C-alpha cells in the first residue's frame, strides 16, 4: 500500500459536479486563516508578541517566520532565541535542537491540515459528498503551501522522504479520518466495497499525485486548471468504484 500523506486546514473547496450538494459548496473556499494563525511575520511584529504568548508558542511563531523568510539552512537557535528575547539555552528547554524546532513547525502545520480534514469528515453531509470535498481540500492545502511557503513545503518533503516521526504520526491520523468516511459510506449504502482495506488503499493510491508533497512539488509548474481537471476525473473514478463494488 502506498502511504497516505496529506497536510494541513480550510473550509470545503468547490465541488466538481452539479446537484444540490454542488450548489451548497460551490462558493466555499479553504479557510486559509487556519494556516496563518500563529504565523508572525517580521522583526517588528516579533517584538510586539515577545511577552504575550506562551514561550513554546512564541518560539514556534518566530521559527515559522524565520523559516519562511530564510529557509532551514539559514536559521539558527541563537537567532530565534534573540528574537524571542531569551538565551539560546532557554530554547533548548523546549526543543532538543534546531531540527526538532523545525520539525515542530512542520508538525503544527500538519495538525492544522488534519483539523480541516476532520471538519469535513465530521460534517453532516452524505459520505460520498464528504469524500469528494475531503480529497479536494487535501489536494488544495498542499498546493497552497507550495505556493505560499516554499521553505516549509521543502521541510515537509524532506520529512516525508526520511519518514520522520511527525510524518508517521500524521499518516496514522489521516488514515483514521479516511476510514471514518468510508465506514459511514458503507453503513449508509453509499459505498459497497468488496474489501474495506483495499478500498482505503484504492482511494489514497488513486489521488496520490495530489496529496503527496513530493509529487505535488514535481507538478509545481502545471497550471492549476489542468490539475483540477485531473483530480476531478480521479475523484469520479474513486466514487464510482466505491459505489459499484469494483474494489
TrEMBL record:
<dbReference type="Pfam" id="PF17935">
    <property type="entry name" value="TetR_C_27"/>
</dbReference>
<dbReference type="GO" id="GO:0003700">
    <property type="term" value="F:DNA-binding transcription factor activity"/>
</dbReference>
<keyword id="KW-0804">Transcription</keyword>
<dbReference type="InterPro" id="IPR009057">
    <property type="entry name" value="Homeodomain-like_sf"/>
</dbReference>
<feature type="DNA-binding region" description="H-T-H motif">
    <location>
        <begin position="76"/>
        <end position="95"/>
    </location>
</feature>
<feature type="domain" description="HTH tetR-type">
    <location>
        <begin position="53"/>
        <end position="113"/>
    </location>
</feature>
<dbReference type="InterPro" id="IPR041478">
    <property type="entry name" value="TetR_C_27"/>
</dbReference>
<dbReference type="GO" id="GO:0000976">
    <property type="term" value="F:transcription cis-regulatory region binding"/>
</dbReference>
<feature type="region of interest" description="Disordered">
    <location>
        <begin position="1"/>
        <end position="32"/>
    </location>
</feature>
<dbReference type="InterPro" id="IPR036271">
    <property type="entry name" value="Tet_transcr_reg_TetR-rel_C_sf"/>
</dbReference>
<dbReference type="InterPro" id="IPR050109">
    <property type="entry name" value="HTH-type_TetR-like_transc_reg"/>
</dbReference>
<keyword id="KW-0238">DNA-binding</keyword>
<protein>
    <submittedName>
        <fullName>Transcriptional regulator</fullName>
    </submittedName>
</protein>
<dbReference type="InterPro" id="IPR001647">
    <property type="entry name" value="HTH_TetR"/>
</dbReference>
<dbReference type="Pfam" id="PF00440">
    <property type="entry name" value="TetR_N"/>
</dbReference>
<keyword id="KW-0805">Transcription regulation</keyword>
